[in-house]
Design a protein that fits this description.
The chain has 20 helices and 15 strands. The protein has 468 residues and is of the alpha+beta class. The longest helix has 21 residues.
């Protein structure tokens, strides 16, 4: 299966194409080379999608071109590729081997004619490795290799190809597949990571394939790009489709986001990123749940975001972020009562952890949200933040209650300690706490709304910060 994948990649990534064209028997060498270039670069159909007859036709015509101009490396390479593809359609083992030997001979010829082309070196390395002892095998098959193999192993040749084309993303990706076929998974993953970081057109299918290769935290660290926005794709995939591993390998994701932030800072410092784009990237990257799990990372983002909002003229929210960057997030428990008709009597239930990503609403008729503070907590700041950019608070409709045991609640007068700030078009509520708070806090909505506007993931809707 892996060999089939490699052949398909050879076809697709090198752009092996099939074009029907007529050429005169008396064509000059330069004209033949031109026709060969058209065949390579402007074919109408990729061979991976054709049948045996199409593969046979391309092989026959490539061979005719090669006979007329033996010194054109791209035509020799085309002949090698067409022979390798045609071997897929041959049932006889001897026919397959003969065609693969033809492919290898032409790969070697192309590489020797143009040694600086990484694709020629990669194809040579892949077939050398697959045939294992190509000289002996091809001799026995009656298809001896006319060009002796220089003293370079397939692995050495792959590494050399990497150096020849450090930014040729299609060939680097192919080299990664060849590394896998040689059971060099760590080198393959590192190469796939580099390709993702430099290739803005890295496809979803390619990314999904690399995801599937990751089976440990060590492999995750090797394969996951530490660059915005690519790192967000990985966070999204694992948090949604591989939740257990996302939780177990959280530290690796936190590290990747920290590195992505450093890379953004470097791009901005080198003036390779304008201020609006930098601010947008910062805000987007800061929305990951991982910041709530790491005070160090969140504080670092808060400092950078404070600078960004100040530069945009939002001094109020910038001041909040600067203050928050000096505080630690307190790991509270959060609960909910959906229909709290007697808020002074009804206990809060449905408790969940502080980093709960389920969506919930604050301003919906009869709803109460609960917060349980650990006994050692010294909370200073409670932040209530909706996700909607048009979120507006009805301060008079929000009632705070307190309890020592979650059985009986009494009003908790915080009106003088509430303020509202605006950021990105929405209101955010700030509640000052004095550090000495009751164990249970209930936030009850006593308005009449049936469709909420203050809704968010629980981890973002209720945030509590205190002194370290």
């Amino acid at each position: 299966m892996r060999i089939s994948l490699l052949i398909a990649a050879l076809v697709a990534l090198f752009g092996l194409a099939f074009a029907v064209w007529d050429y005169a028997a008396s064509a000059s060498a330069s004209s033949i080379e031109t026709q060969g270039s058209l065949l390579v670069n402007k074919g109408a159909q990729v061979l991976a999608d054709t049948d045996s007859a199409a593969a046979e036709t391309l092989y026959r015509r490539a061979r005719a071109l090669a006979q007329r101009t033996k010194s054109a490396p791209h035509i020799r390479f085309l002949l090698g590729r067409s022979a390798a593809v045609l071997s897929m359609y041959r049932a006889s083992a001897s026919d397959k081997i003969s065609l693969l030997c033809t492919a290898l001979a032409n790969y070697r010829a192309a590489a020797q004619l143009s040694p600086a082309v990484p694709g020629y070196q990669i194809a040579w390395a892949e077939l050398d490795a697959r045939l294992r002892s190509p000289e002996e095998l091809c001799q026995a098959a009656g298809a001896p290799l006319p060009i002796a193999q220089p003293g370079m192993s397939p692995l050495e040749r792959l590494r050399w190809a990497e150096k020849l084309g450090p930014f040729n993303t299609s060939e680097l990706y192919l080299a990664g597949l060849v590394y896998l076929s040689l059971e060099q998974k760590s080198e393959a993953l590192a190469l796939f990571r580099r390709v993702q970081e430099i290739n803005p057109r890295f496809t979803r299918a390619q990314r999904e394939y690399v995801y599937s290769l990751v089976g440990s935290e060590h492999e995750l660290r090797s394969a996951m790009p530490a660059r915005y926005p690519e790192v967000l794709q990985w966070i999204y995939h694992f948090s949604r489709f591989r939740e257990g591993e996302f939780a177990a390998w959280r530290s690796a994701f936190v590290e990747a986001v920290a590195l992505a932030l450093s890379e953004l800072e470097q791009r901005r410092s080198a003036q390779n990123l304008d201020a609006p784009s930098y601010h947008h990237f910062l805000k987007t990257l800061s929305k990951t749940d991982l910041l709530a799990a790491s005070d160090e990372l969140r504080q670092r983002f808060d400092r950078r975001l404070a600078e960004a909002y100040a530069a945009e003229g939002n001094m109020s929210w910038a001041a909040v972020l600067r203050r928050r960057s000096e505080l630690q997030r307190i790991r509270v428990l959060k609960g909910k009562v959906r229909d709290d008709r007697r808020p002074v009597e009804v206990m809060v239930y449905n408790w969940a952890g502080d980093i709960d990503t389920r969506h919930t609403a604050l301003d919906m008729q009869g709803v109460s949200l609960g917060v349980f503070f650990p006994s050692t907590a010294k909370p200073e700041l409670l932040i209530l933040e909706g996700a909607d950019s048009a979120a507006k608070f009805e301060t008079a409709s929000i009632q705070f209650l307190q309890s020592k045991d979650n059985l009986a609640f009494s009003p908790y007068d915080l009106a003088a300690k509430i303020s509202l700030v605006a950021a990105d078009g929405k209101e955010i509520m700030l509640v000052e706490l004095d550090g000495d708070v009751p164990p249970y806090l209930k936030i009850h909505y006593r308005g009449a709304k049936r469709r909420p506007s203050i809704a968010n993931r629980s981890v973002d809707l209720i945030q509590v910060y205190g002194a370290p």
